[in-house]
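Task card 7
Instruction: Convert sequence to structure tokens.
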Amino acid sequence: MYALEFRDVTARAPVYKKAGKRILHTFFPPKEPRQAGEPLLMGVSFTLARGEGLMLLGAREEVRAALDLAARGGAGVKAAGDVKTAFGAGEELVPRMTGEENARLFMELLPISRAAGACALMDAYSFSRLGAALKKPVNTYTPAMRAQLRLSLVLSVPPAVLVEDGALAKCNLDFADACVHRIRGELSRGMAFLCAQGDAAGRLCLSALRMEGGRVKERGNYGRLVRGYRAPRDMKAAFSAPLDVPPSARARLAFAQSLRLMQAMLMRLRG
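Output:
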């Protein structure tokens, strides 16, 4: 029995309705720019077993599309249980509500008893290490604080599948280590873990799946695939390169890509 299954899944690039996002997408395109409505995923199929950690490699748009579908479901996506997300931007939280109000809302939406919810709430408060900041609105939080709150809530009542994308990278090292320790314990008890490339992947995932051109290219051992993987050519990916790449090399790659971007913009203006 699989915790998560993708079978011939197709996803299309988003249509940007806001002018600001359209302009940003025009001048700072991803590695493989997609027109609105153009397919991002084409016939993607894979399975995630209980207790397994899987990392997705590929262009940022493709990986995020797969993670979004795993979280919210869709045609061809089946999950054997509840799926919870921990995204780095903290978009799951309600900005105008305080941390405590967000936590209570999270527990109220879970199919658990009040007593179990109260115990989980106390566990989340202590594990988050936010203290008095829990009484402040979430829109006053730093990215690290939002990530800590979301991870604490999700791990207080472990789901069948945890989808993580950058949340662990936002946290400080001590809190990230505590999360990794707890997630490992949940993996041993059957929770499945799906994530994008990052530091947590190497510590929690034994296997990886590489996508290219919207299709599954290869699946295998995490260490082997990461060593042979060439990161997408964009500045954001350069800074999120694997940790076994020296920081100086990542900085040089980011600088080279910024020069290419400036040259492309100058050529566009001259034309």
